[in-house]
Amino acid sequence: SKYDASAAHACAEQMISQHVLAVVGLTAPLGENNEIPTLTSHGIPVIGGLGTPAEYTNSLSFPVSANFYRYGTAIADEARALGAKHPAVVVLGDVPWVHPVEANLLNRLSADGVGYTDVEEVSATQANYTATVFNLQHAHHGPSGGGAGPNYQCPPGGQGCPDYVIAALDPFSYHRLFDAMEAAGWYPHVLGAGLDKFNVQRSYDKEIYGAHSLVPFLSPYDHQSNPTVRSYLGAVEHFYPGQFQALDIYTQHSWTAAMVFVAAAKAAGSNLTQATLIQQLNALHGFNTGWSVPLSYGAGAHDPNHCFTYTMDKSPHGSWSTTSGWICS
Questions:
Q1: Same topology for domains 5-66+246-307 and 68-215, yes or no?
Q2: What would you report as the CA-atom Rg of the chain, rounded to the nearest whole angstrom?
Q3: How far apart are CA 70 and CA 84, in angstroms?
Q4: Span 5-66+246-307: which CATH code?
Q5: Which site in 75, 119, 194, 216 is 20 to 30 Å from 310, CA atoms measured?
Q6: Quick one: how many helices (H) and strands (E) in the chain?
Q7: Cis peptide bond N-terminal to 150, omega within 30
Q8: CA dihedral 169, 162, 82, 219 (to 10 degrees)
Q9: 192 Cβ partners below 8 Å, 6+ apart?
Q10: Is 50 helix (H, G, I), strand (E, B) or coil?
């Protein structure tokens, strides 16, 4: 959908007219949240997705990832655990469903006793982050869509304040943010989600050293002996070699959705229809993806994954190492 809500809706209408069996691995930041009810109102099950709020309130939606709302809680709690005192925050501001996620993050920071200094709300298509980085260093902006306001202001000329940047962006925007940080010679600690996108790692420099990232699936960087990781990387390298370096956390979402679909379709056997697919999806309990906590579904809305692992960049150019087991909320 290329960050185009009208294009996402047109795609949904096209799939409805084509009587598709299911939608698997949807990743449309400006369209997904609205189009899940569009698709499911026509009886089409939606498997996977980015983790937007609508995925978790619909009986025909079968999410595989943690709800983005949970990301807010997890990032704030990790900031406290890491000893962040006065972080600045940058989030996507032009994606409507992000606002409750942002509010939860800011409220949780406040509840955790972390005094944030500024929140910058940026566009997913913003080409340059120079002004954003300046504001993160010096401004005292609050959120536009709810949530606790900044409760600490860095003193003029204060060193080491802000001490962290908490970033909740799409994988393509991190590169632009970090380039602007490097150009400004500003290297605070970084805490984000899904920082480990293959094709931008080599362009990272000092701005990413020691960064922390949380993900709802095991990172391929340090789990290449994991059977699911091997299957995922091997299939993409074989069938889509030109896309291998473009892999990121959201392609892991889609791969996991495909695994769930295949398991349910196999269980339905030769009698595969929309009704039997949905029946078998709801019958999945303790489904082992190999790189997440086991997923279970059933009647009603679904929320099967509450867990993250934490990773840290321990050497130059984004070489990520997992630093925790599953941390669940």
A1: yes
A2: 20
A3: 19
A4: 3.40.50.2300
A5: 119
A6: 9, 11
A7: no
A8: 20
A9: 75, 166, 167, 168, 169, 174, 211, 212, 213
A10: coil
Q: Where are the domains of the chain?
A: 5-66+246-307, 68-215
Q: What would the pLDDT profile of 185-216 be if each residue is shown by its tens digit?
A: 999 999 998 887 776 666 667 778 888 999 99
User: CA dihedral defined by 102, 103, 107, 109, rounded to 10 degrees?
Assistant: 10
CA distances 65 to 124, 129, 176, 201, Å, are: 21, 29, 26, 23
Tens digit of each residue's pLDDT (9 = 90 or more) over 237-273: 999 999 998 899 999 999 999 999 999 999 999 999 9
Beta strands 118-122; 164-168: pairing state: unpaired
Q: Tokens for 209, please give them.
A: 């050293």
Hunting for tokens 């920082």 — which residue is that? Answer: 195
Which amino acid is located at 121 in the chain?
Answer: E
CATH class of the domain comprising 68-215: alpha beta
Nearest to 45 by CA among 253, 277, 264, 265: 277
